[in-house]
Predict the structure of GDP-mannose 4,6-dehydratase.
Amino acid sequence: PSPARMLELPISEENPLRPQSPYAISKVQGDYLMRGYHNVYGLKAIVSRSFNTEGAGRGSMFVTSAIANQVMRLKLGESNKILIGNVNALRDWSHIDDIVRGYCLLAEKGDAGEVYNQGSMRTNAVLSYILLALQNAGWDVEKIETMNETDKELRKGLIAKGKAQAVKFSWDQVAKKTLKVYKEVEGSFS
């Protein structure tokens, strides 16, 4: 039987880990492995649990990359709509530079054996990213169709105020930086 989905929001470092996918299980394994090495062998390990991370080079299977790519296709006239899953799904997105800054902060000031959540401490719907991407591309779309909904229930990715926050980029800046990559690659945005 699968673990019960229990949303305990906001998510703190003390929340029980309940992985729901093979990917999540691998993350929990790494978490316990590092803490185990610290507890048994004294390894100066720090566990960072970073929430959704955005930046250049993300694969097309990630929702923000899929959106940015589809917005680019709109601009090129190759499509007239955006196809996406659950636009109401909520996430805590951070720019990769903020997460790396948090890693550096943890390396300097973190306590060995401790767990630290990293995120923006702001929640945004997928729809808000679509609207930001369209706005930043100077494009209007007539409708947004949903397909292949992966979230059966609304999943809130809220993070509790963590011990290692290094947020610099606003939500709008995260979207702009992702779209900038597509602008540079395609050279098609004005």
